[in-house]
Amino acid sequence: MKNLLFVLFLSAWVGVSQAQSLNFEVRAGVDGVNMSSNNNGLYQAKNLSWQTQLVHNLTGYHAGAFADIKWGWFTLQPGISYTVKGGKNEIYYVNISSANPYSYHGTEELMVDYLELPLNFLVNIPIHGEGKIFFGGGPYVDFGLAATDNNTLDQTNLTYSTETHNNLSPQFGTDLKNPSYGFNTLGGITFNYGFQLSVGYGVALTNLSTNNSTDAKLRSFSISLGYCF
Q: Is 194 helix (H, G, I), strand (E, B) or coil?
């Protein structure tokens, strides 16, 4: 995967000299982000198969700059952006079958700051007198900058109740794999006067956790405003 991405990014920059036109754009927006996991996030194990697990969206954001290397209706678009991804997972469990019934409720909220290098391949369809519609996608590589993890665990039975809170700072290489690889899809419209509106969806292909028993992957849905020049 690393070698493939290196070849793709190298091809993008070499392709600049062969392009019919070269433009640039800036883009920023908000993301709905979540994390799929076979456990409750990174630190709380899903030990019981009959637990109820919920995945919640959190709000992230992104901002970056891109080059548009154009050949006819096709565009190769390398870029660099700052993006915040993460997710919130929640688990409920109630056991009423034993002599001492108990329940617990756990949550984990993870947010990760990344420097992202995407490489998108786009198809452009002109709109007469208005601009163009574009759609496509491509791979990306994320380099982790910082991370926070806030988790809670509430346990209750007939005789006591406990509540535990942890505010953690996961370390790249120890807790989180770095870099991370994934794939983006996007589409939108660019108007003749330069303004752009787009939506996208990204999914990580890399397991975020360094723990082999946990499979955690980040996903994001984005809405962006941009300007091309």
A: coil
- The residue to which tokens 């392709």 are assigned: 15
Q: b/e per residue, 2-19, with b = 16+ CB within 10 A?
A: eeebeebbeebeeeeeee
* Segment 4-53, tens digit of pLDDT: 555 555 555 555 555 568 899 999 999 999 988 766 555 554 444 445 67
Angle among Cα 182, 186, 192 to the nearest 5 degrees reads: 145
Domain count for the chain, please give it: 1
Q: Tell me, yes or no, whether 48 lies in a domain.
A: yes
Taking 3-state DSSP, the helix, strand and coil percentages for the chain, each rounded to the nearest 5, stand at: 5, 70, 25
Task: In whole angstroms, give the CA distance from residue 56 to residue 192.
Answer: 38
Q: CB count, 10 Å around CB of 37?
A: 24
Q: What is the pTM of this model?
A: 0.84
- Assigned domain for 184 exists: no
Classify residue 25: in a domain, yes or no.
no
Mean pLDDT, residues 126-136 taken together: 92
**Residue 11 is assigned to a structural domain of this protein:** no
Question: Tell me: the pLDDT tens digits for 16-26?
Answer: 555 568 899 99
Domain that holds residue 38: 32-111+122-141+148-175+195-228
The rounded distance, in Å, linking the Cα atoms of 169 and 128 is 52
The confidence score (pLDDT) of residue 14 equals 54
SS3 string, 197-222, reads EEEEEEEECCCCECCCCCCEEEEEEE
